[in-house]
Amino acid sequence: MGRAKRMERVVALTKILVDHPQHLFSFSYFCKKFEVAKSTLSEDVLAVKTGLELFGLGKVETLSGAAGGVRFIPGHKLEDDNEFLKELAVKLADPERILPGGMLYITDILCNPQLVVRLGEIFRSRLQHLAPDYVMTVETRGISLALLVARAFNVPLVMARHDNYVTEGPTVNINYVSGSAKEIRTMGLPKRMLQPGSKVLIVDDVMKAGGTGRGMVELATEVGAVVVGKAFLIETAEPATKMLEDYTAFFRLHSVDGENRKITIEPILG
Q1: How far apart are the C-alpha atoms of 227 and 207, rounded to whole Å?
Q2: Alpha carbon separation from 155 to 41, 110, 209, 233, 260 (Å, rounded)
Q3: Residue 201 to residues 32, 131, 198, 209, 229, Cα–Cα distance (Å)
Q4: Which of 5, 60, 66, 269 is a good FRET partner for 86, with 20 to 30 A between their CA atoms?
Q5: How far apart are CA 73 and CA 63, in angstroms?
Q6: How far apart are CA 146 and CA 151, in angstroms?
């Protein structure tokens, strides 16, 4: 392949950076890939940085020194994120989402790659100060959300399970009380998945009373990790007293009225 033109390099550079959020690429990697001098690459990086930041599509960060390089930080303008959450709240309030027993159907949201990628980036933007080493969730429908939060932070996903699997080696298990169902359940985590002293961000889709979230906190602590944050896509307004403290939620569900076909949900804006 011949040497690429500048526009072609800028497009390729943007694609690689955006596909690998938070990953630090050395300048030598791109210089070798594009067959250009560092001074030329610096101009290309500046063009990508300026374009993305101009339209609020994320940031490009450069680090100097032998261990330096360039990386893409995902995120959007605060007003754009808030508008996205407002539009998503309208989708969530669709009466067609009402299920028997006053439940809210959100599986289609959590299985929509474009929506969940954006949600993952919003989680990262609000919680970047936590600087987690891992994102942790439990094997429920919130897995896709937790995975894309982990992608936005560029850290591994750790998943607690209700059943043990011999293929995952020795497992630490705890019993916890489901806050909504008032049932005692079991949750386990392979010992090798979390390093002692590592910082963990817990992510799940819906929190009612907070029993499952509290169970994940206790499980992470049991293996020697430090829980630095708890984040949920939706929290229910009731019960008002939760089994968790100091958590972040992005929507508050007040009621699902099956008789009158009405859902009351609000976005929690940044």
Answers
A1: 17
A2: 27, 20, 28, 19, 44
A3: 36, 9, 10, 19, 5
A4: 60
A5: 13
A6: 9
For residue 186 the two structure tokens come to 């079991």
Q: What's the predicted TM-score (pTM) here?
A: 0.92
Residue 60 · residue 52 · CB < 8 Å: yes
Domains recognised in the chain with CATH numbers: 6-73 (1.10.10.10), 78-267 (3.40.50.2020)
Give the pLDDT confidence of 66-109 residue by residue, as tens digits.
778 999 999 999 999 999 999 999 999 999 999 988 889 999 99
Could you report the per-residue pLDDT of 206-230, keeping only the tens digit for each? 999 999 999 999 999 999 999 999 9
Helix (H) or strand (E) holding 86: helix 78-92
DSSP letter (8 states) at residue 192 = G
Among candidates 27, 114, 103, 21, which has minimal Cα distance to 63?
27
Instruction: Give the model's confidence band at 191: pLDDT under 50 very low, under 70 low, under 90 confident, else very high.
Output: confident
Tell me the CA end-to-end span of the chain in Å, nearest whole number.
47
